[in-house]
Design brief:
Layout: H1 6-35, E1 41-49, H2 55-60, E2 67-71, E3 78-81, H3 86-93, E4 96-97, E5 100-101, E6 109-120, E7 126-132, H4 136-140, E8 148-150, E9 159-163, E10 171-176, E11 178-185, E12 191-198, E13 201-205, H5 207-229, E14 243-245, H6 247-254, E15 266-267, H7 272-296, H8 302-320, H9 322-325, H10 327-337, E16 338-339, E17 341-348, E18 351-361, E19 368-377, H11 391-425
Antiparallel strand pairs: 1-2, 1-19, 3-6, 4-5, 6-7, 6-8, 6-9, 7-11, 9-10, 10-13, 11-12, 13-14, 15-17, 16-18, 17-18, 18-19
Helix pairs in contact: 1-11, 5-7, 5-8, 6-7, 7-8, 7-10
Length: about 425
């Protein structure tokens, strides 16, 4: 009878361990091959993103898909500069929110000189840009973006967004000097975004505001007429029925030094109601102060000064109550009409996206939601995505590694058996 010694048992354990090692090695080989399916780096700059862009429009206007740079094998940096061409403009003009055109000269959104750019580098980094070409240098230093335009914005503006009219509860015309977004994925995997929004003004009108304007005009009109007869030469800021908000008016409500310091997702239009109230109060009180100062300089200005005092007594309670009587209803009307979130950021499945502006039409964007100037980067695999060998080489390497492991195990077993057998025979 042959007795298997302890050393022989250990040898079998070695064989099993070697076999396990070979199996683990075989499992690791496919994992490396799977990584090669990832891309070294990628980025996309896209001026317009909306679910309303059907496949028929996208198929006919490839430019609407944006500038998409993909570096698959580190064979050279990939740079894509893709403006919106004439066919893309035609596709955008066909988009509607309800019965209202979204783009074009009679649409809600009118863009000026805009561009789309993306770069995917061999070192695993990538960057993307879209928006007003003038903003590119400050964001990613790009000076080669080819501009295009959609619609005809007013002079000096790169974009105009118009929703509602003076016959609606609220009408808004937002003028934007420059807007753009950029995103960067560094070689070590850090992702970040930035945006630019400059020279914004908002013209506000509509029936909700008109009631307050009419009340002011009924008191200020006779006062202004009397003052001008006396030579004051003042104008009524409420005659048009519009209230124009400057960028500084909006910043005062937001409590930030500039529009590029707004928290992610801040709705620019949410600042409008409070800004309108402050602007109305400032304009009315400023006018009364101006006429009062003029009356004080007249030899017989007592009568005019009395009219100023009477107007102040009438308007002060009205102006003080505007935060309740006007701001609330105006806020409700604006929210139902449109939203304009800025500095919108998101990360989905490793892709980071920075958007400069999102235009929502209808309550919560129920009629349409359009992202303007988006830049996306990642996920980037970097050098891990570069194939180091073809499939055949990987298969041979995998088989060779497994065979070597078995040979090593056999040698170890033979050595241990030579020692163990004589002991068993004794």
């Amino acid at each position: 009878m042959t007795i298997r010694p302890q050393s022989s048992a250990r040898a079998w354990k070695t064989v099993r361990a070697a076999g396990a090692t070979a199996v683990v090695a075989a499992l690791l080989i496919p994992a490396s091959a799977a990584q090669a399916a990832d891309v070294v780096s990628q980025g996309t700059g896209r001026i317009v993103t909306t679910s309303l862009l059907g496949t028929d429009v996208l198929d006919n206007a490839v430019a609407l898909r944006g500038a998409n740079a993909v570096n698959a094998d580190a064979s050279g940096d990939v740079i894509v500069d893709l403006p919106l061409d004439a066919s893309a403009v035609g596709g955008l003009v066909a988009l509607q929110a309800g019965s209202t055109n979204l783009f074009g000269d009679n649409g809600i959104i009118r863009l000026g000189a805009v561009g789309q750019y993306a770069r995917a580098n061999d070192d695993g980094s990538s960057s993307a840009f879209s928006g007003a070409v003038s903003a590119a240098p400050s964001l990613i230093g790009v000076g080669t973006i080819t501009p295009s335009s959609v619609g005809s914005p007013s002079a000096g503006d790169s974009a105009t967004i118009v929703v509602g009219t003076d016959a609606d509860p609220v009408g808004l015309q937002v003028g934007i000097g420059a807007f753009a977004a950029s995103a960067i994925n560094t070689a070590d995997g850090a992702q970040s975004g930035d945006y630019v929004l400059t020279d914004v003004d908002v013209v506000v009108n509509g029936t909700v505001l008109q009631g307050t304007i009419d009340t002011l005009n009924s008191t200020l009109g006779p006062l202004i007429a009397t003052a001008n007869i006396a030579g004051a030469n003042v104008t009524n800021p409420f005659t048009s029925g519009d209230i124009t908000l400057t960028e500084q008016d909006l910043l005062a409500v937001a409590g930030v030094p500039d529009l590029n310091s707004l928290a992610p997702g801040t709705d620019l239009l949410s600042l409008v109601p409070a800004a309108v109230v402050t602007k109305v109060q400032t304009l009315a009180n400023g006018l009364l102060t101006q006429i009062g100062a003029f009356a004080a300089g007249l030899p017989l200005g007592g009568v005019l000064q009395g009219l100023v005092t009477e107007a102040q007594n009438t308007l002060n309670p009205i102006l003080s109550a505007l935060s309740t009587s006007l701001q609330g209803p105006l806020g409700d009307a604006v929210t139902q009409l449109a939203q304009l979130p800025v500095n919108v950021q998101s990360t989905v499945d490793g892709t980071f996206t920075q958007t400069a502006l999102r235009v929502g039409v209808g309550p919560d964007g129920s009629l349409a939601s359009v992202d303007l100037a988006s830049a996306a980067v990642g996920p980037n695999a970097g050098q891990l995505a570069v194939p180091v060998a073809g499939p055949e080489s990987l298969a041979i390497a995998g088989g060779g590694f497994g065979l070597a492991a078995v040979i090593v195990a056999a040698v170890m077993l033979r050595r241990r058996t030579r020692v163990a057998v004589p002991t068993a025979r004794g």
